Every structure is written in C-alpha cells, then in structure tokens.
Amino acid sequence: MQVELLVQQPGRDHLRVLHPHPQGHTTWFNKSGNGISGIINNMMYSMLRNGHPTYSVIPTEERDLWFRQFAQEFNWESGHTETVRHAFHAKAIDSYTKQIYESAMA
Taxonomically, which superkingdom (predicted)? Predict the structure, then answer.
C-alpha cells in the first residue's frame, strides 16, 4: 500500500501527528522528545540488511521500506506525504551518518 493511502486509513487517531508547522498536539522532525530519532535508529538496527558507507547508497527499495515503516508510527495529512518523506530522509541521513561516525570512532 502506498504511504499516501496508508495515512488515510481509519484507526490511526492514536498515532502522533506530524505537521510541517507544528501547533497543539502536532510535532515535526526538528522538535525534541518526539521519538523520531529513536524510531529511525531502531530501524537502522533492525531493518538494515547490509552495511553501507552512507545512507544515500542504501537501495531505494530499502529506504522506501523504512519510510513505510515510519508511517506505521506517525500520522499526517496525506497531502504532506512528500514533505514528510523529504524530512524523514534528511533525518535518516543525519542519524545514519552519526551512527557510522560513532562506529568508526569506537
């Protein structure tokens, strides 16, 4: 199922809501304490099939799978999917780079 359709499914009211301009109960990637980094880090440890030197060389299918998995944890207006996708990948790049750097320094 495409993510655009997934976020329109009923029964997602209990999920945290992402919005590019967070207000009230919504959040965004640049807000702390919303669990986004933790979810991305968990995906790195549990869903990464092979090691890659950078996030950008992870196969597109695998990165798309990560984004679909992320959509299981958060909700947003379907019209914001591409904005969320872009922000997700930017955050994933940052998290992946930090993990690779920390591993190299260990």
Answer: Eukaryota
Domain that holds residue 99: 3-105
Mean pLDDT of the chain: 91
Domain count of the fold of the chain: 1
This prediction has a pTM of 0.90
Distance (Å) of CA 69 to CA 44, 79, 86, 104: 12, 18, 15, 27
CB 81 within 8 A of CB 4: yes
Cα-based angle 2, 48, 6 (whole degrees, multiple of 5): 15
- CA nearest 4: which of 101, 61, 100, 78? 78
